[in-house]
Write a structure and sequence with these properties.
Layout: E1 3-9, H1 15-24, E2 29-33, H2 40-45, H3 47-65, H4 67-70, H5 81-105, E3 109-112, E4 114-119, E5 122-127, E6 130-141, E7 145-147, E8 160-161, H6 163-166, E9 175-179, H7 183-194, E10 198-202, H8 214-226, E11 230-232, E12 236-243, E13 246-252, E14 258-263, E15 265-268, E16 272-274, H9 281-284, E17 307-309, H10 320-334, E18 348-350, E19 355-360, H11 363-369, E20 373-379, H12 384-389, E21 395-401, E22 407-414, H13 417-429, H14 434-438, H15 449-458
Parallel strand pairs: 1-2, 1-6, 2-3, 6-17, 8-15, 9-10, 9-15, 10-11
Antiparallel strand pairs: 4-5, 5-6, 7-16, 12-13, 13-14, 18-19, 19-22, 20-21, 21-22
Helix pairs in contact: 1-10, 3-5, 3-7
The structure holds flavin-adenine dinucleotide and nicotinamide-adenine-dinucleotide.
Length: 465
């Protein structure tokens, strides 16, 4: 029987990063993946394919709406949707192949099969009807998540679809009805809106991206509305039915009056749920929460001391970089080190255009916690760089402690916000004050000048607004 110091079940950004870090630390490591390709949700049906389609559709949108103004004559630009999907598939294959290379490079044994616990130190791997058992001192569960739905919705995966199908359609919808105005609904909604679909977003809460700072929800909705997406916030979906190629969604509006939506596709994007099916947790007695998440302590350790869990399958934000941080952290813990993750400093990004990115506390949270804070904001339209590229929408908002000036949160909407938020994360890791950023030189002309100016605005001394 093969034996390992560590076995990782699941090869997403949590699992494969954990495996690499374990191998770097000299631990004999194996990884088990039930699908033929490594990389998990993120690489196969999540972050990477969605960003590939966002980038392709962004080019098309620019070509038909902005090229002329730039002095580029590109008449009769059309979409070859099959090629767009083929390119996305190529990006996915290349990225997954990169993980195979990394497994080889780090001498990690890869098992293609379904992993399940036989007992706390033995794992069965089943593939094509055959089962092999391996022995492992430690196991890291990194089995991720699956799309969730509403109890009355039948996901036929043809007309009533999840993000997985929405990333591989064979035609652009005429009318895409999106249930859930969160990250997936808005990113994929924007892809199809740009490609010419009518897109209606039905959101249960009074605002889209409801957990983010209110300024971001408001600004993003305004911008996407201008681009043609229709929003129905405060609407409670009560039924979804399909007849032939037509999907009918009924939702009660704020007054409780039923509103009918007819589309050719309905994307259900109301969140994701942890995935632990047939993992054999009952064979080892690993505890799960009421929401199906594996319970862990602050060391990502389950109630069974040699079994750890990370990523979407445990509590916290369902984000690839959060899963990867936990992957590194758990490997170091197993190797006897004392790493730490500050969950308040995991950034959240929505890759629409304008992009949305945030870290730390929202203004709503600070109010609720009774923290005394100051606000500084700066509009993108006041930047030379924004004018040059015609990306005038958005702003940076900085929240700093009223007495100490420590930055407590940063909320950005605008071009390149996703890349810019790293500055805030690093500043906050070092517990910087808004004055620290205000006094740091930012290259001109760049979008990051908006961060410096917003920090200056905390002290009422922004230069360009
Ligand atoms: P996963 O990536 O879900 O990987 C788990 C792996 O475990 C899977 O490959 C699964 O097949 C395997 N597995 C499960 N059970 C077993 C078993 N018993 N035996 C063997 N293998 C098993 N996050 C971001 O940060 N940025 C983004 O831009 C972003 N975009 C997204 C877009 C979409 C459309 C979706 C759906 C998600 C997106 N996410 C994004 C979220 C991100 O994909 C997840 O947070 C991340 O993949 C979680 O990583 P993980 O390693 O915990 O699990
Ligand atoms: P989400 O939690 O981001 O959004 C779900 C939305 O659906 C929420 O706004 C919620 O209020 C709404 N909702 C819930 N029940 C509803 C109902 N009955 N009717 C109408 N609306 C309802 O979830 P998601 O968009 O499905 O994404 C799943 C996960 O994947 C998220 O945790 C997210 O972090 C991750 N993800 C991240 C990125 C990114 O980082 N850019 C992109 C895509 C997905």
């Amino acid at each position: 029987m093969s034996t390992y110091d560590v076995t990782v079940i699941g090869s997403g950004p949590g699992g494969y990063v954990a495996a690499i870090r374990c191998a770097q630390l000299g631990l004999k490591t194996a990884i088990i993946e039930k699908y033929n390709t490594l990389g998990g949700t993120c690489l196969n049906v999540g972050c990477i394919p969605s960003k590939a389609l966002l980038d392709s559709s962004h080019h098309y949108h620019d070509a038909i709406h902005h090229f002329e103004k730039h002095g580029i004559d590109a008449k009769e630009v059309t979409v070859n949707f099959k090629q767009m999907i083929d390119r996305k598939n190529e990006v996915v294959s290349q990225t997954c192949a990169g993980i195979d290379f990394l497994m080889d490079k780090n001498k990690i044994t890869v098992y293609n099969g379904f992993g399940s616990f036989k007992d706390a130190t033995h794992i069965n791997i089943t593939s094509e009807g055959k089962t092999e058992t391996i022995e492992s001192k430690h196991t890291i569960i990194a089995t991720g998540s699956k799309p969730s739905s509403l109890p009355f919705i039948k996901l036929d995966k043809k007309r009533v679809i999840t993000s997985t199908e929405a990333l591989s359609l064979t035609e652009t919808p005429k009318h895409l009805v999106v249930i859930g105005g969160g990250v997936i609904g808005l990113e994929l909604g924007q892809v199809y809106n740009r490609l010419g679909s009518q897109v209606s977003v039905i959101e249960y809460m009074p605002k889209i991206i409801p957990t983010m700072d209110g300024m971001l929800s408001k600004e993003l909705q305004k911008s996407l509305k201008k681009q043609g997406i229709k929003f129905f916030t405060g609407h409670k979906v009560t039924s979804v039915t399909t007849k032939g190629n037509e999907v009918t969604v009924i939702a009660d509006n704020k007054k409780g009056v039923p509103v009918e939506f007819k589309g050719d596709y309905c994307l259900v994007s109301v969140g994701r749920k942890p995935y632990t099916d047939k993992l054999g947790l009952e064979n080892v007695g690993v505890k799960v929460t009421e929401r199906g998440q594996i319970e862990t302590n602050e060391h990502l350790q389950t109630n069974i001391s040699n079994i750890y869990a990370i990523g979407d399958v445990v509590e916290g934000a369902m984000l690839a970089h959060k899963a990867s941080e936990e992957g590194e952290c758990v490997a170091e813990i197993i190797a006897g080190q004392k790493p730490h993750i500050d969950y308040n400093l995991i950034p959240g990004v929505v890759y629409t255009w304008p992009e949305v990115a945030a870290v730390g506390k929202t203004e709503e949270q600070l109010k609720e916690e009774g923290v005394n804070y100051k606000v500084g904001s700066f509009p993108m339209r006041a930047l030379g760089r924004a004018r040059a590229s015609m990306d005038l929408e958005g702003q940076v908002k900085v929240l700093a402690h009223a007495e100490t000036d420590e930055i407590l949160g940063m909320h950005i909407i605008g071009a390149r916000a996703a890349d810019m938020i790293a500055e805030a994360v690093i500043a906050m890791e070092f517990r910087a004050s808004s004055e620290d950023i205000a006094r740091s030189s930012h290259a001109h002309p760049t979008f990051t000048e908006a961060i410096k100016e917003a920090c200056m605005a905390v002290d009422g001394r922004a230069i360009h607004s």
